[in-house]
């Protein structure tokens, strides 16, 4: 029996667009762990590291290391992180290249700004991290760099079950040179 290549699955999108919820729903049927930047950063802050660029970068680096260890063991991984700027995206590209794996990218958006803002303000994750404000989200949206890779865009305005089915179909196709990208893939998130 031929063993399947491990998959590096990236969930990307602005805060409050449903990345974590989708990651958790996908983890069970795929049998994959989820490595999420926010809880890792929260643990770093609890250890006394000051909140800011350094703690965020450290959390991404921990995520990359955890993912690499999983992938080297022949197991896939789901990454839950904003990944809005080119250096963050390049971390995952570099890992995929080093291991000879394709990236499977899902970009989470919320096409209704009012609903997105409401989702963000109602969010109570209890991580010990400061929750991003709407102003933070707008700043990140202005800095957003589109992925170069094919992406499947999933909209938080659609039911989670619908997004999960679409995502599973996208992931299970697993071809590194996908020709079809979601028709919403090039829309700016949020």
Kindly give the count of domains.
Answer: 1
- Helix and strand sequence: EHEHHEHEHHEH
Shape summary: globular
Which fold does the CATH topology refer to? Rossmann fold
The description of the largest β-sheet is: 5 strands, parallel
Strand content: 5-15%
State the CATH class: Alpha Beta
Instruction: Going across the biggest sheet, name each strand in turn.
Output: 2-3-1-4-5
Could you characterize what this model shows?
The chain is α/β, with parallel strands linked by helices and 190 residues long. The chain has 7 helices and 5 strands; from the N terminus they run βαβααβαβααβα. It has a 5-stranded parallel β-sheet, with helices on both faces. Helix 1 (19-30) packs across helix 7 and helix 2 crosses helix 3 (53-72). The longest helix is centred in the N-terminal third of the chain and has 20 residues, at 53-72.
SSE topology:
Elements: E1 8-13, H1 19-30, E2 34-36, H2 37-46, H3 53-72, E3 77-80, H4 86-99, E4 103-109, H5 113-122, H6 134-143, E5 151-155, H7 160-173
Parallel strand pairs: 1-3, 1-4, 2-3, 4-5
Helix pairs in contact: 1-7, 2-3, 3-4
Question: What attributes does this structure have?
Answer:
190 residues, alpha/beta, Rossmann fold, five-stranded parallel β-sheet, 5 strands, 47% helix, globular, disordered C terminus
Provide a brief overview of the structure.
The protein is α/β, with parallel strands linked by helices and 190 residues long. The chain has helices at residues 19-30, 37-46, 53-72, 86-99, 113-122, 134-143, 160-173, and strands spanning 8-13, 34-36, 77-80, 103-109, 151-155.
């Amino acid at each position: 029996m031929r063993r399947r290549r491990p998959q590096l699955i990236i969930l990307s999108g602005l805060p409050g667009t449903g990345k974590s919820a989708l990651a958790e729903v996908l983890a069970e049927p795929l049998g994959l762990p989820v490595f999420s930047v926010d809880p890792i950063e929260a643990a770093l802050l609890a250890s006394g590291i000051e909140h800011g660029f350094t703690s965020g970068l450290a959390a991404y680096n921990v995520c990359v290391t955890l993912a690499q260890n999983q992938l080297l063991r022949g197991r896939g991984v789901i990454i839950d992180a904003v990944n809005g700027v080119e250096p963050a995206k390049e971390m995952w590209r570099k890992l995929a290249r080093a291991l000879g794996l394709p990236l499977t990218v899902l970009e989470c958006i919320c096409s209704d700004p009012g609903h997105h803002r409401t989702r963000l303000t109602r969010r109570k994750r209890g991580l010990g991290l400061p929750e991003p404000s709407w102003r933070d989200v707008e700043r990140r949206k202005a800095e957003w760099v589109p992925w170069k890779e094919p992406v499947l865009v999933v909209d938080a305005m659609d039911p989670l079950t619908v997004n999960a089915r679409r995502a599973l179909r996208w992931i299970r196709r697993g071809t590194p040179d996908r020709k079809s990208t979601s028709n919403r893939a090039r829309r700016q998130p949020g």
